[in-house]
Amino acid sequence: MPPKLALLFGAIFAFTAFRSDRRRDIGDAKGLFWPSLWYIVVASHPIGYWLLQWGVPVPGASDDPTDGSLIDRSFFLLLTIVGLRVLSKRNFRWGPTLRLNPWLTAFVIYMAISILWSQYPFVSFKRYIKVIGSIVMAMVVLTNGRQLDSIFTVIRRCLYVHLPMSIICTRYFRNIGVSFDWNGTAESWQGISTSKNTLGQIAMLGVVYFFWEVRRNWPQYGWRNIHILYLLMALYLLKGGPGSVSMTSISVCAFAVFVFLRIQSLRARPWAVRPFVLTVFCFTLIIICFVVTHSLVMFSANSVFGEMITLLGRDITLTDRTNIWHDVYEAASGNPLLGVGFGGFWIGRLANIPWNSQMTWVLGQAHSGYVDTYLQLGFVGIFLLLAAILSALPRLFEALADDFDFSCFRITMFLTIIYIDMTESVYLRGDHHLWLILQVVLWSIPRFPKSAESAIQEKASVLRHESPANRKPRSVLVSSCGGNLEPIGDYHPSIRSWRPA
User: Fold this and answer.
1) What pTM, to 2 d.p., does this model score?
2) Engineering a disulfide at 378: which of 32, 184, 239, 339 sits with its beta carbon 3.0 to 4.6 angstroms away?
């Protein structure tokens, strides 16, 4: 098939999926357009990259890594401003939210303060804008009404584009969708993502989400659900290229599906979720401690930890990650307490580890979120990060009684991202798609008293989402007079409309 024809078919397929998505009522759909656009971009290459691929000259393009891309910088700044405008229209109050999340607030503030001792403060400031923008986008999602459907909408819209286009790029646009190792022999799929690991994370998220969607909508759609095709696409991409199967992505996906299924099985016993999650969390922390120890003092290949690494298809150096960590620790030793400053290290080849200058590509992360946090923010940053994570756990458990499904999603992603950051870097990266999801997971917003109008709209939305078999005519309060609500209409499922009483 000609590449352009394949691209056309992929676009038509994605458009069809978007058309079917329009039937879903998710509250303020227009407000979710902006976090969806943000998420689609951060899950792929920067806008400037795509413009260059299409032959469009990029204004402000420069080879100087301290300048960055003017068009990408403007895009993220504009979306941040638009997100703040959306929150302003919703009368969102930052003060109560920041006070409800003190450790997370302290972590974000410390990131800003650390810019003062960064060797490249302007670069650090520009990267901090993306961090703030991702938090704003998360608040737009969390204040949209039904929180689970809102974040699912953002994820779903990204996957509708990302999965088919990644498959097309790996087969027909290989200069974009395929990369090779240093020897030029082992082939790795990266699709429209920036690397095979990012594509594996997107595929993992697709497997978890579409499995969830197919499972909960099976009684209504069965095999007619278009999400089954997307689930198969996610599984196909998760496998990776013929020469480089991403065992890390497969293990992360298995971990996420296991956590999700186990929590769902405890729906009738929500009190049992806490001990299960704490067990998995503690087990994950133990593995993290082993990895950190391994980065300092190499375990033997014949040790128990060495055997575990071998089972995951890795060598004892975790695909040369230990070499990176050794040099990163040496670079951070000058200021281990405070770090080198947020966003002030991975800047092209300027502030990188020495041997990176001899490579044909530029290393942009330490392949460990915890190592990157230590490098940039020191022990203080590590302490604040762990405090923010630990302080979020009790709120996740408390939310189970209010919205079990949304809490299940948050807990699943909470544990999964902590697990991913052992060998990949998500923390502190405002342009990483999982960083946005982490903000949705960690931040809690206070409950403000609802006006009568907002309560009525939410009730009407819930009625529209009930299955036809369970939907019954019922009175809905639609007006208020003198502080008392009066019913003036009934919902009739047979005609799917509101009829005056």
Assistant:
1) 0.84
2) 339
